[in-house]
Amino acid sequence: MDERRAARYGRIYEQLRELIEGTSPNLTAAMATICAVLHAKMPHHFWTGFYFVAGDRLHVGPYQGAAACQVLEGGGVCLEAVRTKEAVVVPDVDAFPGHIACDARSRSEIAIPVLANGHAVAVFDVDSATPNQFSDADVEPLQRILSLLQPFV
Ligand code: SME
Predict the structure, then answer these.
(1) How far does the centroid of ligand 1 lie from the alpha carbon of residue 49, in Å?
(2) How many other C-beta atoms can be found within 10 angstroms of the C-beta atom of residue 60?
(3) CA of 59 to the centre of ligand 1 (A)
(4) I need a labelling partner for 84 at 20 to 30 A (CA). Which of 35, 122, 125, 139 fits?
(5) Looking at residue 28, what is its pLDDT?
(6) Does residue 127's CB lie within 6 angstroms of at least one atom of ligand 1?
(7) Is 129 close to ligand 1, i.e. is its CB under 6 Å away?
(8) Rounded to an integer, what distance in angstroms lies between the CA atom of residue 31 and that of residue 149?
(9) Four-point Cα dihedral 149, 145, 44, 11, nearest 10
(10) CB atoms within 10 A of CB 126
(11) What spacing in Å lies between the alpha carbon of 55 and ligand 1's midpoint?
(12) H helices of 52-117, where?
């Protein structure tokens, strides 16, 4: 990850901490605020959003970007993150078996589960229209941002 992106993550975390700790009334508001700020400030983000866990399916939550799949089921990157409770980094979506293409322009992706008491309750997902946009180095700064949701889960 380049230094510019690392510095941006730091600034975005501070801005979101202030916004969420100061004013977010609930989980949906905090998620929407995270999407809005990250999507606006990260030029490589093509789609930025959340899915909520609903049994063995996922239902779309707050997001920014093109209209997305309303329901995910049967496989894919987001369900893999929920199943493993671990971040899933996909440098090339065509190389990920079962990848669900809500938008054919998506080329790389990262999905990070939102955990509550050890259970995945949602998943945060970012798509890029450029291949190879995510690596393991993106996981920790994004998890730090997602930790701002913990008071609401
Ligand atoms: N590609 C995801 C589907 C969600 S969209 O990218 C918004 C997946 O395989 O789970």
Answers:
(1) 10
(2) 18
(3) 11
(4) 35
(5) 97
(6) yes
(7) no
(8) 7
(9) 130
(10) 25
(11) 17
(12) 77-84
From first to last of its 153 residues, what are the pLDDT tens digits of the chain? Answer: 789 999 999 999 999 999 999 999 999 999 999 999 999 999 999 999 999 999 999 999 999 999 999 999 999 999 999 999 999 999 999 999 999 999 999 999 999 999 999 999 999 999 999 999 999 999 999 999 999 999 999
Q: Is the pTM of this model over 0.90?
A: yes
> Which residues on adjacent β-strands are paired with residue 111?
88, 125
How far, in Å, CA of 29 to CA of 35, rounded?
10
| Cα 114 to Cα 134: distance, rounded to the nearest angstrom | 18
- Cβ proximity of 98 and 78 under 8 Å: no
Any atom of ligand 1 within 6 Å of the Cβ of 125: yes
* Ligand 1 pocket member 72 (CB < 6 A): yes
Question: Is the CB of 102 within 6 Å of ligand 1?
Answer: yes
Could you tell me how many residues make up the chain?
Answer: 153
pLDDT at 1: 79
CA 113 to chain centre: 8
Ligand 1 mean position, distance from CA 75 (Å): 10
Q: CA-CA-CA-CA torsion for 3, 9, 12, 18, nearest 10 degrees?
A: -120
